[in-house]
Write a structure and sequence with these properties.
single chain; alpha+beta; Bacterial Protein-export protein SecB
Length: 160
């Protein structure tokens, strides 16, 4: 009799803001923003193994808002989820951690960004949905290109 494979298991143990910085540059400089702001959002993802089945997955967000040449505000945040992940094959663990876990964290990060920008004196910033599959693929390609540029040195591993 063969053993029936168990279903993957994902459980969130905790979520927390590891780091948050919001700078209202317009207020600090005593200037009022003119025109529609240009808002640039950059997202990074990091995953670290804590124990055999426990992982920390961090969404690293940078938001830069400017109007013309003037900066309006800067927001930086690391939002972390601590997860138990079981019954996921090793060859599928990277995409699972860097796609599925961020999908669960994103709505909470989005709410915090909305609240912080509103409380900072601006209209609430509602970040568009993020395609974590595309983000994962871009990172894999970036690492492959970097590895090729260094002559194959370095690790192809996305999780430490």
């Amino acid at each position: 009799m063969s053993e029936v494979p168990q279903q993957p298991r994902l459980q969130i143990l905790a979520q927390f803001v590891r780091d948050l910085s919001f700078e209202n540059i317009a207020a600090r400089d005593g200037t009022a923003p003119e025109g529609k702001p240009d808002i640039k959002v950059n997202v990074g993802i990091d995953a670290n193994r804590r124990t055999q089945d426990n992982y920390d997955v961090a969404l690293k967000l940078n938001v830069d808002a400017s109007a013309g040449e003037r900066k309006i505000f800067l927001l930086e945040m690391d939002y972390v989820g601590r997860f138990v992940v079981q019954n996921v094959p090793e060859n599928q663990l990277h995409p699972f951690l860097l796609i599925e876990c961020p999908r669960l964290l994103f709505p909470f990060l989005r709410r915090i960004v909305s609240d912080v920008t509103r409380d900072g004196g601006f209209p609430p910033l509602n970040i568009d949905n993020i395609d974590f599959v595309a983000l994962y693929r871009q990172e894999v390609e970036r690492r492959r290109a970097a590895q090729s540029a260094t002559g194959g040195e370095g690790s192809d591993q996305l999780i430490s």
